[in-house]
Amino acid sequence: MVESVVNAPEVKDLIRRVAGYDQKGGDQRLKQIIERVVTDMCRTIEDFDVTPSEFWTACGYITRLGQAKEVGLLVPGLGIEHFLDLFMDEKERRAGLEGGTPRTIEGPLYITDAPLSKGEARLDQDADQGLVLFMEGQVTDTHGKPVPGAIVDVWHANTKGGYSHFDPSQSPYNLRRRIETDSDGRYRFRSILPSGYGCAPDSPTQELLSALGRHGQRPAHIHFFVEAPGFRKLTTQVNFVGDKYLHEDFAFATREGLIVEPVRHADPAEIKARGLNEPFATIHFDFTLNREAANLPEAVVVREHAKAA
Ligand code: MBD
Ligand code: FE
After folding, report:
1. Which of 167, 218, 249, 252 to mutate to test the pocket of ligand 1 (most atoms within 8 A of CB)?
2. How many angstroms does the Cα of residue 220 sit away from the middle of ligand 2?
3. Would you say the pTM of this structure is higher than 0.70?
C-alpha cells in the first residue's frame, strides 16, 4: 500500500467527528481517549489487513463475553489488571511512597457486605474436604505500629476452585468475611485451604486464551482488602509455596512478598488442642499499610460489585 489509509485527511476528519470534536458539548478528556482508541483500532485493522469477516467475528466475541459476564475475567487474563497495579506502583513511587505490603489484583469475584466480626471469624460454612487452615497476623503501619480497628475483608475459593455467590452450590457468604482487627491490630480466622481457580473450558475467556495457546488456571490464593481510617486501602492476595501455577498464573497476580508457606501440623497433641481430629495448616501473615497523603493517587478503586441478595 502506498499511503496509510488511517492517515488520510478524510479518515482523520472522520475520527475527529466520531470523538465529538466538532461539538461544543461533552467531555474533553473522553473525546481525546475515544479519538485515540478509534484511531488505534483503525491502525490495527490496516496494519494487519483485518478483513471485515474477522472484525465481525471479534464483535461477536465481545458480545458473548459480555453476555457471559466475563469482561472482569478476560481483563486480568490479558494482563491489564496487573498493568493497572504496575502503573499505580510507579505513580506512588514517583510521589515518594515506599514500603507497605505489595498490592495485587482484586479479580472479578468479590462480593460486598460479607459478615463482619471483631478480631476473629470462621469462614467455612459449607462442608468441604479441605485441609483446615488457621490464618492470623497483625496490621501495622510502615513503622510497625499496630492498626486497631482495621477491616480485613477476606474471600477465597473452596476446594473445587469455586467462589460463593458465583457458584450456586455454596451458601451465601461461604468463605467470605470482614474481620475488624483487635486492640493490637491483630486478625485471625479459621477456614480451609482453597484450590486454584480455572476458567470454565467452554467460557468465552478460555476460548480466547486457547486461541493464544494459553491455559486459564490460577494458583490457589486468598484475597484481601485491608482498610483503616487514615491509611491507603490495600488490595492484595497471598499464594502458596509449591503451587503448580505459582508462576504460571493466567491473571499474572503472583508477587514477591505475597508468597506464603502454610505450616502443616500433624502432631496429635496439637490437633487435639485445636479441637480437631485431623492435621491442619497455619499461616502467619502481617499486613503493612501506607498512610494516606494528599499528593498520592487515589487508592480506592470504584468498580461495580455484586451484592448477595
Ligand atoms: C479468580 O479467583 C481471580 O482471583 C481472578 C483474578 C480471576 C479469576 C478467578
Ligand atoms: Fe480469586
Report:
1. 218
2. 8
3. yes
Give yes or no for a contact between 35 and 15, defined as CB atoms under 8 angstroms apart: yes
Q: Which CATH superfamily is domain 80-307 in?
A: Aromatic compound dioxygenase (2.60.130.10)
* Set of cell numbers at residue 15: 475520527
Q: Give the CA distances from residue 216 to residues 105, 125, 154, 219, 269, in Å, rounded to whole numbers and listed in that order.
A: 16, 28, 23, 10, 41
Asked if 142 contacts 291 with a C-beta cutoff of 8 angstroms, the reply is: yes
Q: Ligand 1, residue 223: give the atom nearest the CA.
A: 4
**Distance (Å) from CA 278 to ligand 2 centroid:** 27
Could you tell which of 109, 158, 250 is best to mutate to test the pocket of ligand 1, judged by most ligand atoms within 8 Å of the CB?
A: 109
CA 105-111-97 angle, 5° bins: 35
For the chain, residues classed under CATH 2.60.130.10 are 80-307
Per-residue tens of pLDDT for the chain, all 309 residues: 558 999 999 999 999 999 999 999 999 999 999 999 999 999 999 999 999 999 999 999 999 999 999 999 999 999 999 999 999 999 999 999 999 999 999 999 999 999 999 999 999 999 999 999 999 999 999 999 999 999 999 999 999 999 999 999 999 999 999 999 999 999 999 999 999 999 999 999 999 999 999 999 999 999 999 999 999 999 999 999 999 999 999 999 999 999 999 999 999 999 999 999 999 999 999 999 999 999 999 999 999 998 886
Q: From ligand 2's centre to the CA of 194, what distance in Å?
A: 10
Binding site membership of 151 for ligand 1 (Cβ less than 6 Å):
no
How many alpha carbons lie under 13 Å from residue 103 in its C-beta half-sphere? Answer: 27
Query: How far is ligand 2, taken at its centre, from the CA of residue 224, in Å?
Result: 10
